[in-house]
Write a structure and sequence with these properties.
The complex is a heterodimer of chains A (about 110) and B (about 190). By secondary structure, chain A is mostly helical. Chain A has five helices and one strand; from the N terminus they run αααααβ. The longest helix of chain B has 24 residues. Classes of the chains: A mainly alpha (about 110), B mainly alpha (about 190).
Chain lengths: ~110, ~190
């Protein structure tokens, strides 16, 4: 059966702990969508909550704030993987609850 | 795309590969390929392993079923690019475009198996509501899907969740339908690696 557990771990490890243009602290903050300064906060929050609302201006504002494109690339990737990971983990908890383990509705945080 | 590096910042060898793709397919290189080939050691390499396992790894779901899940999750997320891309792959995998368009038009009346319908319904609901309730999962199990099938469906949703967000955030450009069809043929032959 398909099992993405290890591949998912490797992805998170690479984007958060491996070499990058953005600092590890910035990448972690984008992954968690927490503690980011404006205008990066707005961009990553949109990536997390409703990516289809991201605009050219959101991206331009982050560029104007001094971040280089390679840093923006990494931080947006971290934001997307972080949110998808939280949703996946929440669904796995609900699955465990439904198949035996006790639990409540698992709410996504986006 | 919104970052110039994703359009034109690739290494020379990758640019040559893109030229070959254009020459052989007669179509523009899809933005998702440009994304996964840009600094592939950072994102594209590790993510492709996740996506390939989710979409092509061993599963009781067929490739068509999983591509259909991807298309419907993308539609629910309002990601037009991913919806079109995975619809094209699902059409090719099933060799039955009517089945795919029926599901995308109205899941409840589409002529599909009940375990698949219940799983798709649950994927859409949990995507829309941002919450997953154990009772919803129980309904999927009651419809005949196994726990493993639900896990496999969640793997598909994870892959789509990441890719769809990036498609929207980076502003993937909508190519002509023929480009999606060429991409679908490649994905059916080679997978996501």
């Amino acid at each position: 059966m398909s099992d993405i557990t290890e591949a998912r771990r490797a992805l998170a490890r690479r984007i958060l702990e491996g070499e990058g243009e953005a600092s590890r602290a910035q990448r972690r903050a984008a992954f968690d969508n927490s503690g980011l300064p404006e205008p990066l906060r707005t961009l990553i929050d949109k990536v997390t909550r409703s990516a289809h609302r991201v605009t050219d201006e959101d991206m331009a504002a982050v560029r104007r704030s001094g971040l280089r494109e390679d840093e923006i690339f990494e931080l947006v990737v971290c934001g997307a993987v972080g949110q998808a990971s939280r949703r996946y983990d929440a669904a796995r908890l609900a699955l465990d609850a439904a198949t035996g383990k006790d639990g409540h509705a698992a709410r996504d945080s986006r | 795309m919104r970052l110039a590096i994703l359009d034109s910042g690739h290494r020379l060898a990758t640019k040559v590969l893109f030229a070959l793709i254009r020459a052989f397919s007669g179509q523009p290189v899809l933005d998702v390929i440009k994304l996964v080939r840009y600094r592939a050691d950072f994102y594209g390499g590790p993510m492709s392993k996740v996506t390939h396992e989710a979409m092509r790894g061993a599963s009781a779901w067929s490739v068509g079923d999983r591509e259909l899940m991807a298309a419907l999750v993308a539609k629910t997320n309002e990601c037009a690019w991913c919806t079109q891309a995975h619809t094209a792959v699902a059409n090719g995998a099933y060799r039955d475009a009517a089945r795919v368009s029926a599901v995308l038009a109205d899941l409840e009346t589409a002529p599909i198996e009940e375990p698949l319908r219940a799983t798709l319904r649950w994927l859409c609901k949990s995507t829309r509501e941002q919450a997953v309730h154990p009772e919803d999962v129980r309904a999927v199990l009651a419809a005949g899907a196994s726990r493993q099938q639900i896990e496999d469906a969640l793997a598909v949703r994870f892959a789509l969740d990441v890719t769809g967000r990036l498609a929207d955030a980076f502003g993937f450009v909508q190519p002509p339908p023929e480009a999606f069809e060429a991409g679908a043929k490649y994905l059916l032959a080679r997978g996501y690696r």
